[in-house]
Specification:
The relative contact order is 0.11. The protein folds into 2 domains: 100 residues; 312 residues, no CATH class. The protein is mainly alpha-helical. The protein is globular and about 75 Å long. Helix 7 packs parallel to helix 19. It has 19 helices and 4 strands.
């Protein structure tokens, strides 16, 4: 069986078009940047309706060239993917093989965009995201990795081989290398080559995406629960409470982040049980947040509030105890038959570290927003009505701070993704066999000058996910400012 090229037989026709369009696009972008900097590159005029627009010139020509060449480049990329989906490796080589494996992801993305665009006027800020080109691109990149990670990690719909399986003769093989003696029903190629232990890079790439998709958003969400629960009263009440909580936040922020990570995930610190005790404290904040939220909302309806709190907090308490309880750790509060799930100790340590590092920054953002919003008229009106402080904080101040918080949430997931990659790269927290992107980059960097594929593939994946989160945040910020 012959090795695969990147674009296969169709590449003879599509590749020259792709390279030409890419060159035109880059030149147009450079010219547009230069013209925007140069004085007099474009003239701004005021339209009859009061809006501003450019009045022709070289800048407009370069902007049009950028827009149309970029669109044409996108169409060529879509041609690679579509032809690959129907033709597989035989039509467009490695690109076709990957496109065919990712068919469930393409279907999920198309369905998500079709439904979202159809009902966007009924979906609030999320629906408005589809009025922003930048936001849609970012959302597509993020959801690609969310769907790909979930489908690879939960269902094995995408992966071609086991992420830990080693195949004789496939060590450090280049992308598209065929397997010798592949059995019937076994995928015949290593699409992105083999790593230094003869494992399939393609399969490990998407298994690693599942690790990131699980940890980064959840850890960021927990950090927000901590930051919001402490930041709102600090900003609303002020005084000694604000001084004390701000001092604690500044104390944590005074440590270099990477050094703090090193301290929390080293085996000596883990052996003392400190991460487990930290998890016990940090993971209780969602219970506090939800309990106070529901109590403040339904305080005047005790017949409904009490059973609601019992059910919701009972379920959340069970999940909380299952999260922190581990028979082999310092914290074992649930018997095994009541423990809903076991978290890998390495993942728990990384999770706690991320929450602990991010929570003070979220606290400062929420505190600043609360200090500003508590002076608004609608807060004074709620106080005049006799509403309680927590009702005002959670149902008046917090909803009106959602725009900046949503944007920061997206950006912070990107920061968390980078931190996870950093920890994996240094071999801290997660197991050495873990397919997470940081560990995979570290394993491939030793042979980077000879076999770059094993390190470049996860590095590009990390880049695209973080880029997607940044673009998504830009789109959300752009649309939230229009409200």
């Amino acid at each position: 069986m012959d090795p695969l090229t990147w674009t296969g037989p169709l590449g003879q026709f599509l590749d020259p078009v792709f390279y030409a369009l890419a060159a035109v696009f880059l030149i147009a972008v450079v010219i547009q940047i230069v013209m925007s900097i140069a004085a007099g590159g474009t003239r701004v005029v005021t339209n009859p309706d009061g809006t501003l627009s450019t009045a022709g010139g070289a800048y407009d020509l370069s902007a049009s060239a950028t827009r149309w060449s970029g669109l044409a480049l996108l169409l060529v990329v879509l041609a690679y993917i579509v032809l690959g989906v129907f033709g597989g490796p035989g039509a467009t080589g490695i690109v076709g093989g990957m496109s065919q494996q990712l068919i469930p992801v393409w279907i999920a993305l198309i369905a998500t965009f079709a439904l979202s665009i159809t009902f966007k006027r009924k979906l609030g800020l999320y629906g408005k995201l589809f009025d922003s080109t930048v936001g849609m691109i970012g959302f597509a990149l993020v959801m690609f990795w969310v769907y790909a990670g979930a489908m690879a990690g939960l269902f094995d719909w995408i992966t071609t081989h086991e992420s830990l399986s080693q195949v004789s003769g496939m060590k450090n093989k280049v992308p598209g290398t065929p397997m010798r003696g592949a059995e019937e029903g076994e995928y015949a190629w290593y699409l992105l080559g083999g790593d230094n232990l003869a494992r399939d890079v393609f399969s490990r790439l998407f298994k690693g995406a599942w690790v990131v998709v699980q940890i980064a958003p959840l850890a960021t969400l927990f950090a927000f629960m901590v930051g919001i629960t402490l930041g709102l009263p600090a900003g609303y009440y002020g005084g000694r409470l604000d001084t004390f909580l701000s001092f604690l936040a500044n104390l944590i922020l005074a440590f270099p982040v990477i050094l703090l990570f090193y301290l929390l995930v080293t085996p000596e610190i883990v052996a003392t049980g400190i991460p487990n005790y930290m998890a016990t404290v940090l993971f209780v904040f969602p219970l506090i947040f939800v309990g106070v939220l529901l109590n403040s909302r339904y305080y005047t309806q005790p017949s409904f509030r009490t059973p609601l709190l019992i059910v919701v907090l009972g379920l959340m308490g069970w999940i909380y105890l299952s999260l922190i309880s581990d028979g082999g750790s310092k914290v074992a509060v649930l018997p095994e038959f009541l423990d809903l799930f076991d978290i890998d100790p390495g993942i728990l340590v990384v999770f706690v570290s991320v929450v602990f590092v991010n929570a003070p920054t979220v606290f400062r953002i929420v505190r600043g927003l609360a200090l500003d919003i508590k002076t608004r008229d609608y807060v004074a009106a709620a106080q005049t009505r006799g509403e309680g402080p927590w009702y005002i904080m959670l149902w008046e101040i917090l909803p009106n701070a959602r725009g900046p918080l949503i944007v920061d949430f997206c950006l912070r997931i990107g920061y968390t993704t980078i931190l996870l990659g950093t920890l994996g790269f240094f071999g801290l927290g997660l197991e050495s066999e873990s397919p997470d992107w940081g560990t995979t980059i570290n394993a491939g960097r030793r042979l980077l000058s000879v076999y770059p594929h094993a390190a470049i593939a996860p590095a590009v994946s990390l880049l695209t996910l973080v880029l997607g989160l940044n673009l998504l945040a830009d789109g959300l910020r752009e649309e939230s400012l229009k409200d």
